[in-house]
Q: What sequence folds into this?
């Protein structure tokens, strides 16, 4: 069994209670601005309004947030809300989405594991809950095949991650440690040069030769392949059952307490969306790309869209044990003091919906509300 997989299984078994966060973990590193997509506000015509007039939903214009892209684009979330209006906003980084959640600018968000851990820990468990999962996978190590032939060839090379302490940065630092190599987590200097590079600029830097590779999420990974890169490792292969959380659904605890009916309706919408995506992958892929074009002004070309979509698994399961493992890896890298994640999940609303739909319930790995 590879060392990385061995440590992951040890991490998955660990569920120790933990003190507070020392270094902020961030999201997938696309920037920090938010966009109010109020022109896409919608309600199900003729439906009965729930306890809130609107529900404000935040997400990234990114394929790993396909549940939100498709669910809003196709009206599958709005359909469950009756006369309650969906007000979407898009974000380019986890910290700004967490700030918006804390400020009440959004009520529910789609977000990665690192900012979920960070937001929960910094608030001492008072800000958010994870309601369910959305996506697994979609992260790859892509390299210049002329410079790097094998994984051992990474030593001495310049490899990009999206942002210091973000989900992919932590994963790459953990992989480096498993190889027995040394890298200073803060500076990125060591046996491998870890270069923190915004996903918007990484493909151009790779094309120019200033980077030898990158450990990045989709669709950036497939953009690098389109520029001549080669996938040397899919991160999914390092995890039990080839699954790890890349996108969660979070909610502010205040909104969950005050509007449980709205939260239930949104979750019914996401469950229905995920079911439709998995039953109609080609239509869903086209829908997600249409949403991306509307949000960014540019659709993804087929040579990027197709492999990127293929590598992402859409799921209701939050894969809670892998969230604990990712927190453990950040602690081991020196980027995080051990956080107490007990209570970060409230999966009761989701499991009620799944049970009613005849689907298997999902687990919180001992990190649910008591």
A:
């Amino acid at each position: 069994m590879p060392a990385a997989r061995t440590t992951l299984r040890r991490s998955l078994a660990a569920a120790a209670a933990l003190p507070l966060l020392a270094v902020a973990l961030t999201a997938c590193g696309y920037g920090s601005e938010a966009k109010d997509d109020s022109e896409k506000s919608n309600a199900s015509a003729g439906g009965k309004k729930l306890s809130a007039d609107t529900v404000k939903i935040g997400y990234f214009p990114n394929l790993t947030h396909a549940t939100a892209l498709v669910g809003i684009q196709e009206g599958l979330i709005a359909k469950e809300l009756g006369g309650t209006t969906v007000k979407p906003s898009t974000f380019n980084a986890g910290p700004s989405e967490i700030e918006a959640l804390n400020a009440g600018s959004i009520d529910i968000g789609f977000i990665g594991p690192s900012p979920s851990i960070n937001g929960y820990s910094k608030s001492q468990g008072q800000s958010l809950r994870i309601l369910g999962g959305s996506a697994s996978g979609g992260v790859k190590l892509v390299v210049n095949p002329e410079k790097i032939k094998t994984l051992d060839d990474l030593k001495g090379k310049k490899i990009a991650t999206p942002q210091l302490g973000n989900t992919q940065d932590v994963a790459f630092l953990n992989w480096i440690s498993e190889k027995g190599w040394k890298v200073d987590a803060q500076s990125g200097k060591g046996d491998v040069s870890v270069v923190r590079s915004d996903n918007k600029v990484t493909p151009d830097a790779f094309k120019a030769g200033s980077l030898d590779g990158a450990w990045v999420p989709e669709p950036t990974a497939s953009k690098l392949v389109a520029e001549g890169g080669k996938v040397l490792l899919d991160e999914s292969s390092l995890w039990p059952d080839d699954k790890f959380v890349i996108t969660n659904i979070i909610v502010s605890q205040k909104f969950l307490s005050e509007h449980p009916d709205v939260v239930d309706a949104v979750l019914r919408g996401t469950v229905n969306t995920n079911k439709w995506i998995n039953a109609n992958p080609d239509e869903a892929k086209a829908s997600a790309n249409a949403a991306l074009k509307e949000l960014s002004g540019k659709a993804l070309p087929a040579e990027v869209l197709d492999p990127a979509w293929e590598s992402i698994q859409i799921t209701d399961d939050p894969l809670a044990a892998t969230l604990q493992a990712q927190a453990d890896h950040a602690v081991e890298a020196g980027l995080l003091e051990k956080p107490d994640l007990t209570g970060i999940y409230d999966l009761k609303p989701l499991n009620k919906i799944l049970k009613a739909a005849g689907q298997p319930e999902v687990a919180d790995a001992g990190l649910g509300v008591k």
Summary: The longest helix spans residues 260-279. Confidence is low (pLDDT under 50) at residues 1-33.
